């Protein structure tokens, strides 16, 4: 049983309250401590009764860092089209500048941290299912569990106002002790009523039209996506879907972002960018083929993908673009000459990891997010033209799908994945998204099948069956 005791926190907390009174504006108090390791899903689920709509979950691809946030001490929202990354960066820096940090550990991904997502295209007309999200929605959790290997850390973030009394800390200590001592994991499943593909034939026609434009040399690549609408008997719990994603897609970034009545979640194989101190990591992931039924068939398919001209072209465009961005802001770049294969449960991809060191230590992770998003793995080449084409031909709001999702801490560390293999839950409905890179030698039927495979991870996780589409 973990018990957090008051006296240790008290002095720093009083300092924050006094500072808020002196400045006459809210001041963040953030306390970090090491705790006994616990299952992050237990912690997430413990927050369900009191904090549904204010939780998040993040596990990185290698399972090295898991972060769970419960309760929202502050929510950073931005609806500006042009400057949302820069604004968020500035706002976050200002916010933590005045904070009182009670943190003797200085571990990455602990202490004040914001987690959230950016929409794919802020100039897209918003559809009703995305109402709960802004173009940038990042949450500073009240209680946060960070698990790294065998170590676990608890962060408490309290936004002290000038009217707060020093004893409000008691309320938080009581709440966190309840959350930490949750002893059972009773996650309820839900019944899926109906699954509907949105205009599949129309989508194939659109792919044909775009292929026509690509053949005329108007663009080199456009990523086209489509969606599935799923209805449930009752409003589904994100806990259930998350639990499935964690067990069914162990080699992916797994994320859940609950905001008001919605939850956006998924299991993506694709890193956009990670920053640890001075080090920058990104991933070029594009070009796909299914998994084989046997080891031999699987290896053959992998070899076929590595040798396939159309897929290599799709991939190459992504490598060139990410390389250009890293060359602008980094030194000591390490980029393999040839792609390798990344295999996840349902699909294999061409994969080229890339890393470097920031040339100037004040280049923030959000600068990289701004420069990289959208890579040609989700947008296209040339970027602006492809974005216009997507808006015109897809006729849907991608919302947070294909956008950057992840976290940054007060020390400048962070990681963002590309929010693919994902879906939105909104009351009794869920919307799943999948896309594919269209190039001049694409075939609409094969691209359709590729998106079908990419729906599978989410469809399975929400309790559906792959034959349903
Ligand atoms: C667009 C998606 O995936 C992207 C497209 C890929 C492709 O077309 O080969 C491969 C990986 C992802 O970068 C998706 O999963 O929705
Ligand atoms: Mg493809």
From TrEMBL:
Binding, Mg(2+): 314, 450
Catalytic reaction(s) noted: chorismate = isochorismate
All residue ranges annotated as the Chorismate-utilising enzyme C-terminal domain in the record: 200-454
Membrane-traversing stretches: none
EC id: 5.4.4.2
Record PANTHER family: ISOCHORISMATE SYNTHASE ENTC (PTHR42839), ISOCHORISMATE SYNTHASE MENF (PTHR42839:SF1)
Name used for this protein in its record: Isochorismate synthase MenF
């Amino acid at each position: 049983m973990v018990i957090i005791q008051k006296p240790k926190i008290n002095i720093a907390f009083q300092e924050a309250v006094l500072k808020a009174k002196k400045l006459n504006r809210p001041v963040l108090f953030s306390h970090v401590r090491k705790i006994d390791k616990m299952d992050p899903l237990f912690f997430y689920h413990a927050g369900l009764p009191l904090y549904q709509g204010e939780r998040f979950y993040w596990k990185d691809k290698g399972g090295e860092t898991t972060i769970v946030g419960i309760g929202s001490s502050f929510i950073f929202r931005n609806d500006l089209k042009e400057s949302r990354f820069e604004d968020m960066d500035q706002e976050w820096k200002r916010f933590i500048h005045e904070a009182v940090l009670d943190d003797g550990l200085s571990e990455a991904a602990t202490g004040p941290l914001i987690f959230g997502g950016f929409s794919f295209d802020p100039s897209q007309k918003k559809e009703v299912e995305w109402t709960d999200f802004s173009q940038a929605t990042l949450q500073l959790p009240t209680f946060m569990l960070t698990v790294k290997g065998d170590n676990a850390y608890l962060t408490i973030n309290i936004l002290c106002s000038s009217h707060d009394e020093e004893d409000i800390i008691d309320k938080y200590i009581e709440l966190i002790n309840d959350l930490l001592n949750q002893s059972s994991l009773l996650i309820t499943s839900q019944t899926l009523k109906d699954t509907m593909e949105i205009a599949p034939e129309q989508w194939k026609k659109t792919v044909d039209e775009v292929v026509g434009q690509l053949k005329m040399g108007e663009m080199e690549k456009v990523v086209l996506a489509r969606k599935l609408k799923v209805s449930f008997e009752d409003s589904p719990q994100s806990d259930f879907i998350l639990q499935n994603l964690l067990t069914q897609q162990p080699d992916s970034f797994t994320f859940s972002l609950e905001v008001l009545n919605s939850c956006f979640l998924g299991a993506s194989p694709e890193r956009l960018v990670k920053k640890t101190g001075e080090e920058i990591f990104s991933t070029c992931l594009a070009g796909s083929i299914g998994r084989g039924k046997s080891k031999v068939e699987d290896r053959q398919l992998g070899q076929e993908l590595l040798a396939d001209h159309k897929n290599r072209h799709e991939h190459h465009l992504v490598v060139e673009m990410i390389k250009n961005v890293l060359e602008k802001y980094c030194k000591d770049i390490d980029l393999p000459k040839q792609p390798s294969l990344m295999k996840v449960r349902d699909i294999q991809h061409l994969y080229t990891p890339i890393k470097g060191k920031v040339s100037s230590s004040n280049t923030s992770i959000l600068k990289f997010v701004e420069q990289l998003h959208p890579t040609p793995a989700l947008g296209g080449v040339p970027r602006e033209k492809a974005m216009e084409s997507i808006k015109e031909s897809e006729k849907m709001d991608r919302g947070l799908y294909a956008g950057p999702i992840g976290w940054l801490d007060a020390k400048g560390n962070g990681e963002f994945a590309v929010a693919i293999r994902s879906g939105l839950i909104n009351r009794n409905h869920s919307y799943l998204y999948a896309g594919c890179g269209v190039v001049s030698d694409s075939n609409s039927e094969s691209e359709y099948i590729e998106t079908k495979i990419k729906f599978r991870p989410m469809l399975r996780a929400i309790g559906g069956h792959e034959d349903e589409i």
